[in-house]
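Key result, reporting period 2: structure in, sequence out.
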């Protein structure tokens, strides 16, 4: 396999990351590093959002042209949260450590603990995503099926 250095821009366009990946297909994966809004470095905490995102995999889906899978871990430091956003993807979350508060528009917030799951559809607005604790970190795995080459996350458009 070839190694390649790739650059990705966060949804806000304010951060760049440089990460070594094992395949050339990995360039698409790094839109996923922006899963939770602005992430400055995939291996370090973002001081604004207290979030650590670690891309694990990005591959095209066999037999489903134009679709790819992205897998990553997200860690919210104590009190960490993301800004409202959307994914335009099928998103599946599995909590590894701690607990997170999740909410999509039209539904009540839910607290998702270790060993529990949460799902978002391509039309959901992810209104709330936050660590339920102010003293302990929370970590979860994200499995996403999305359109190839499209960003994994989009910040919400501001109302006029």
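The corresponding designed sequence is given below.
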């Amino acid at each position: 396999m070839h190694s390649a250095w790739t650059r990705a821009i966060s949804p806000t366009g304010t951060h760049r990351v440089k990460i070594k990946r094992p395949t050339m297909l990995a360039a698409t994966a790094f839109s996923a590093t922006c899963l939770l809004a602005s992430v400055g470095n995939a291996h370090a905490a973002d001081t604004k959002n207290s979030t650590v995102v670690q891309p694990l995999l990005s591959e095209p889906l066999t037999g489903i042209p134009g679709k790819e899978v992205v897998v990553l871990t997200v860690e919210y430091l104590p009190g960490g949260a993301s800004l409202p956003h959307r994914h335009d993807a099928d998103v599946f979350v599995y909590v590894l450590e701690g607990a997170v508060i999740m909410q999509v528009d039209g539904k009540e917030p839910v607290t998702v603990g270790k060993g529990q799951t949460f799902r978002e559809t391509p039309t959901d607005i992810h209104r709330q995503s936050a660590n339920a604790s102010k003293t302990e970190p929370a970590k979860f795995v994200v499995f996403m099926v999305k359109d190839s080459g499209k960003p994994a996350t989009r910040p919400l458009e501001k109302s006029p």
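Confidence is low (pLDDT under 50) at residues 1-48. The first strand starts at residue 4 and ends at 9. This case is discussed further under Risks and Mitigation.
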